[in-house]
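[scheduler] slot 2 assigned
[scheduler] job type: sequence-to-structure, two independent chains
[scheduler] chain ordering preserved from manifest
[runner] begin chain α
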Amino acid sequence: MKYEITREPLDPQSLLDAVRSDECGAIVTFLGVVRVMGDGDRPVDGLAYEAYPEMALPEMRAIGAEASSRFGEARVAIAHRIGDLALGEVSVAIAVASKHRAVAFDACEYVIDELKQRVPIWKRENYRDGETRWRPNASPHA
């Protein structure tokens, strides 16, 4: 499968292509997009992400393998962007393919929740008033 950390804009189609298989009847995708309100309900004009790829990529692979074994045979691809991102840009993309849709949905949700909890990726919110703040990347709903 495909696991990457990149400074380049994410291409969801490349993730779909990585997981697509004639044995799979379902593909679920998740795109995390930079929104106008930060985690603390302050308006932002963008985010910046940093990562430690030497640790992040093996952990992303481990999460993909866990999702596949936990929910049934699933093909997983994950990409996360680093660097400065503007409003509307995709920061994280996940694609999961499986024989059946329930597995694909469950595995995709597991992947994003685990990614936010375990992968060493850090997020800085750039507020419209010029201030910045590093925020935890952990999902408040996980």
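[runner] end chain α
[runner] begin chain β
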Amino acid sequence: MTELARLKFYATQPHPCSYLPGEQATTLFLDPSQPMDAQVYAGLSEMGFRRSGDHLYRPHCQRCSACVPARIPADQFKPNRQQKRILKRNADLCVLPVRPKSSEEYYALYARYIEQRHADGDMYPPSRDQFSTFLVRDLNFARFYEFRLGERLLAIAVTDLLPNGLSAVYTFYDPDEERRSLGRYAILWQIGETARLGLHAVYLGYWIKNCRKMNYKTQYRPIELFVNQRWVALT
């Protein structure tokens, strides 16, 4: 029996879906008593699991399969013309990996981002407890990648460094720097970093065809989608 086969999982009761209005969602969670091990996490990421705070999860809806895990194979990625412009536009930024922590600087950026970009979402209004519970976890594979212009913090990419790649947990950034396309740049940078480290892919979470907020993920090609228990290339 493999290590993954011994794991226990728990399903939630159906609850309103955060992405598709009128739909009911069910979530499958790894038993929280299981230590958050990078090897286990990497194995589960190959099966479409994601991390939120201290929990690994994936959708487990009975009547809907709209949430499709997506990843970008780093060594095959070729930026298009628009993505090349974004890379050039942000070439003046310095990126520094640090361990996740709470700070006034980080929280102020997070709060501004939620208030100006996601006031219609379930993370509004922002709170320090929410920020800490969701993003600031003491896990040996978790990273905050700081994107700075000189001393000024423009973005944080919350990312998990795993044996099989980088898992993009969440990115928040200065909402006033719209011209830089910082959210897109953070993904492009993580693809480049994954290739530099010799790892396989950037795991982007779930692509949902009928959800406008998730459609940006297929702009990165080639992209692989986890369909019928296998990764399929969408070129």
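[runner] end chain β
[qc] chain β: The two ends are 36 Å apart (CA to CA).
[scheduler] slot 2 released
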